[in-house]
Amino acid sequence: MSQRSWCSQCHHNGACIDAALIEHYRQCGIEEDTIVRQLPKARWGLRGEVPSYQSITAIENAYPLAFQTPR
User: Which of 32, 39, 42, 63 is deepest in the core (most CB within 10 A)?
Assistant: First the structure.
């Protein structure tokens, strides 16, 4: 379930997952299939050569349908 991005844990560009973000999705009751196919697996990404950060709140706002599941 990894996604190539800049990793805030290992500080390298690679195939890492944001375990806390994935756990947040699960605690919100989001199904595994939705996590794998539709949601970002890391809060950090690269825009060109510049690392960019997307907060959990920003992710929830960008994917509102995924977070409408019963908690």
Answer: 42
What's residue 6's pLDDT?
A: 56
Q: Give the span between the Cα atoms of 49 and 29, in whole angstroms.
A: 34
For residues 31 and 51, give the distance between their C-alpha atoms in angstroms, rounded to a whole number.
28
Q: Each residue of 7-44: b (16+ CB within 10 Å) or e?
A: beeeeeeeebebeebbeebeebebeeeebeeebbbbbb
Answer whether 24's CB lies under 8 Å from 31's CB.
no
What's the predicted TM-score (pTM) here? 0.73
